[in-house]
Amino acid sequence: MTRISKLFIATVLTALGASTGIAMAQTDHKSFESMALPDEDQIACKVPRPPRDLAETAYVRNGYRAILRIMAAEKWQETGSCKCFLTEITWEEVIDSGQKYITSSDPKRPFNTSELRLLADAKLAERDKACAN
User: How does DSSP assign 74-126, residue by residue?
Assistant: First the structure.
């Protein structure tokens, strides 16, 4: 088989694969249109993404994000209000509060981010359960 024949066969197979993929994408698109959209409250009460200049690494930014979630849950515990506090707490407040969550002298890994996430998840699950009623 010549090199040109091999290129021709490869081109035909690629074109067939692409046309099959297009047909699959169109089928998948139809099912996507039938999905329900989340409630507007769920969209509004979303944890904001930490700004890049908040910390040098994503690990530390994720730690601050978890601290923000913890602070919001604590605010709920203090007030008893089911209001979304995630957007009312400033990143400066998070940094100040973050001092009590430092577990290491390593500036690139000052927090145990996994533990912070678990704590935030537990506190917010309590809030969600109480506010669902």
Answer: HHHHHH---S--TTTS-HHHHHHHHGGG---S-TTS-S-HHHHHHHHHHHHHH
Tokens of 112: 């145990």
pLDDT tens digits, one per residue of 99-130: 999 999 999 999 999 999 999 999 999 998 99
Q: Are the beta carbons of 133 and 85 closer than 8 angstroms?
A: no
Residue 76 has pLDDT above 60, yes or no: yes
Distance CA 78, CA 97 (A): 16
Supply the pTM of this predicted model: 0.67
Q: Which residues of 3-37 are buried (b: 16+ CB within 10 A; e: fewer)?
A: eeeeeeeeeeeeeeeeeeeeeeeeeeeeeeeeeee
Where along the chain do its domains lie?
1-35, 40-131
- Which helix H or strand E contains 20, and what residues bound it? helix 3-33
Query: Do the Cβ atoms of 85 and 124 come closer than 8 Å?
Result: no
Nearest-10 Cα torsion for 108, 111, 113, 114 = 120
